[in-house]
Amino acid sequence: MENDAIIKIENLIKRFPVGKTEFTALKNVNISFGTGEFAGLVGPSGSGKTTLLNIIGSLDSPSEGEVIVLGKNVSLLTHKQSAVLRNRHIGFIFQTYNLLPVYSVYENVEFALLLQNMSGSERKKAVMAALEWVGLTEKVKSRPSMLSGGECQRVAIARSMVKRPEIVLADEPTANLDSSNSHNILQTMKNLNRELNTTFIFATHDEKVMKYLNRIISLEDGKVVKDLLMPDSKN
Amino acid sequence: MIKFLFKGILRDRSRSLLPVIVVTLGVFLTVFMSGFMKGVYGDITELNAKFNTGHVKILTRAYAEIADQIPNDLALTDVKKLMTKLHADYPEMEWVQRIHTGGLLDVPDSVGETRGQGQVVGTAIDFLTPGTTEVERMNIPKSLVKGSIPTKQGEALISDEFATRFGVSTGDKLTFFGSTMNGSMTFKTFVVSGTLKFGNSILDRGSIFMDIRDAQLALDMDDAASEVLGYFKDGIYNDLKAQQVENSFNSRFSKKDDEFSPVMSRLVEQQGLGDYLKLADSANAIMSFIFIVAMSIVLWNTGLLGGLRRYSEFGIRLALGEEKKHIYFTTIYEAVLIGLIGSVVGTALGLGLSYFMQSHGLDMSKIAGNVGMMVPSVYRAEVTPGLFYIGFFPGLIATVLGNGLAGFAIYKRRTSQLFHELEV
Q1: Which of A114, B54, B67, B356 has the highest Cβ tally under 10 A?
Q2: A96 vs chain B: nearest CA distance in angstroms?
């Protein structure tokens, strides 16, 4: 763990109703993340990785326990406060990129800033800077359908980073990419992590990703079974 | 943000094209059908008012009971005095006398022997008084096929179909055989000044139009008339005013125990025309209601399908920090935009076709050839101010309602569930 905790999870339990019974997806999880971490939640499918990311991203709420993100208890946030937290402070990257197909690269990256009511000139500056980070300034007018998988994921990274969030949550970001593109993407994220001191939290079971992580938290059946710092990670 | 959404609508045709087409089509049909029905019902009413019912009509009580038999023996008498009173007491209306009769029209050969005979319906109106409005009211100048309007007594107009069937030309002499008011046989020879085609099967089959003075002389109806019709001077029927005139007249002139006393009835009380007018209004209301319900269901489904297809987009937008409520409202903004476009285009198309149908009409004379009702053979639409909004607002409401209902399905879903579906 580095620096002060910006995410603090204590005794987190998450249950989902399954018919008349309940399924416990997370069982008494206790973890903290500090500023600038490049950490990963690893484990097999159904181990609770995505559920944990959703709760950190305030897309879901705990059944029990506390999750404090940037000093805010996500259980106590209203819908509006959750939306503001996501819009200002948290970026998301998905396995399937999830770009808006009818909008250009520029517009996809710009969208998050539109919600912040930023002026046109400021938006343009921020979008172009984000696209420059990921090396896609030549593709501003392209639609997602005209891009390769790697390029799409770079757009998704630019979109998550354009608002300069403190935290980026990446759910299996390399699952749909080949080896070369995966390394490229991970290198880009690692650079951003270093330059902007953004905290990256991955949900993954990809060995390639794990090589880049500074910290690996293993989950099994909703429990944290290992929490290891990785001093030998790439870069 | 609005610009951003607008771009999305324009680029994503499945989001915009189908709903716009549905709304356009619905609004177009509502506007056009409403205009067309209004026009047809209006034409039927107007035609009947001009030729038959007036805005108000005065008959004797006895005549009124069997008016379809044209019982001139029960006609109004002392009409000059009645007309004077009507002009003095009800100056807001124009009063005219008419005589209806029936008989045979004899077509002679070169030596005066009968060459042919045909049944005709005779109508006598005021052709000759200077400033008479009857000629225009009956649309005679536009209905004239050959010749000219009678300019002196002894001249008459006959239907062009009759003239063609019997080879009659203008200037020919024909003899009308009928019965007088007292039941005696009568005949009178007329010079054919012209031929007419009204576009109405009843009038066009066989008819003769003569001046009322000629009819009064021929039928022994001096100072008598089959009926007296009243028309509002602005030409527009006003039921409230008509009712006032009717009540006033009947209370003053009509006696229940005297079968020869005059009795007045309004347009809507004659020949089911009131029902026609109510039917027109009801049909319009029903059509608008059906349109709103049907369009809402279609657009609801379209909205649901669109919503399902856009789950990914909504999930992304949630993740990027947009509020669920905001997403819901943006779908409503989109619906308003689509509804506006569809309603404007649909209204414009509906008005355009209504205007075209008002100018050109739909000739139904071949289909309505044997119809005995007084209906126009050319059906025209009527462009009224109401057409500008009768489809527009339902179009807009249906779109917003449909999308609003569809949006609830998304709105009610848990945030994380929407988000999970991104990963499917």
Answers
A1: B54
A2: 7
